[in-house]
Known about the structure:
This protein is of the alpha/beta class.
Amino acid sequence: MRATMMTTPLTLTPMLRRAATLYSDIEIISRRPDRSLHRATYGDFARDAVRLGRAFMKAGMQPGERVATLMWNHVEHLAVYFGVPCAGGVLHTLNLRLHPDELAYIANHAGDRTVIVDDVLLPLFAKFKDRVALDRVIVVGSREAAIAAGAIPWDDFLATGDDDWSALPVLDENAPLGMCYTSGTTGKPKGVVYSHRSTVLHSMTVAMVDGLGMSQKDCVLPVVPMFHANAWGIPFATAMVGAKVVMPGPYLDAPSLLELMETEQVTCAAGVPTIWAAILEQLDKAPRQLAPGTRMVVGGSAAPDAMIRAFDRHGLRVIHAWGMTETSPLGSVAHVRSTDGDEEERYATRARQGVPSPTVELRAVDDRGLVPWDDTRSGELQVRGPWVAASYYDQPDAADRWTDDGWFRTGDVVTIDRHGSIKIVDRTKDLIKSGGEWISSVDLENALVAHPAVREAAVIAVPHPKWGERPLAVVVLREGKTATPEELRAFLGEHFAKFQVPDAVEFIDAIPKTSTGKLLKSALRERYAIWSW
């Protein structure tokens, strides 16, 4: 017997057409670099997305050709999110917080042929553009700045396209749609390539009530950057359901975000805990007339229990989500269960990383095998599902991140309770997570020992009241050599982004080691567990 259902491919094009047809009058608001608010609609966005795709097709873009973006959150970036994939290209978002050396490597490894860049980010682009072979550069914003940079103004490139929806290609649902690079692990950044199918399925789950619960009635503020893990899939999900969207541009400070939340009556916002900590501090000083019950989606790292309770007092609800670049990224969400009892039990549920999203499976494994769901024994979290990466792009040496039976090793150490809710308790590698961004301790250590005055170096995470964790460098100097913390930090700043450079350097006589000669970081973490900033 065979099923009688149609096999319509799951691609982005029907989602774009739906937004244009059903929600053409719904607003998309963008904060510009001059702080003004630009108001557009889904009709405007869909028109530009189609024109952009057609412009690339007329320019000879081949299926699978990569188009990179170096952009903040705004409506033009959203048009690229849809226009490039619907024309058969691959969207590649570049993380503007990375060092130019890393950006050059990533753009070359991905094989980017075009870069679309905000005019305010041209100085950053200038630091690595000569190291990347590009066919064209398109600048959003100032026409004068684009021409001065020898680039194509955004409006000029759109004008070469047309509104012919019928000329867009018929796409295979397994064709590549976009790619993001993950950083923080030892070695070079690794690329994850998403398909149309995986992205459509992921978007549906993001919009579910037991996902992030987005609907046409919402006003959504994606604080999480569109250059970071697809802004957690929110740009795709909001377009799918026709939610009003407020894009913050480059202004992610608490006063600017609260102004948007109040004036536009935002009902759902998403960002890392450091963003919400700053907003909470502002609300405690001066309450705002925010939409009652606004959902504050927290990812990147865990929100403290005290933060969840504090936002409740302001009538705002924190929702924990967990994921990675390799999981598109939504992997789990924490919602209160119908069987949860008293208030304390409900808070305990909300403080976890939650249960797996539909169709995502998870397990934890330690040296004894599968970890039971008893919330006592911990193990490495492993996941699989239709929007979980099965490999990295052109990086076969990283195949050990997948088990022989097809599960992805996340590197997070968790416990799992009887309901399948995970709680992250540690990490398998010595990574530091600061403000939602990964920092590799090994890469910093390798760079430090390249300094002529440094004999040994270890970098560990120490608690920080604002960023959750910050890197501390523990250094042993060579005999007869001297160096200051400022000198070593400046040395690292030549090759690392500002947020990756340790805030402090501690000099000691010897770093503890294991019996095999490895750095004993657990001893250092104990020694510096209490650190005064």
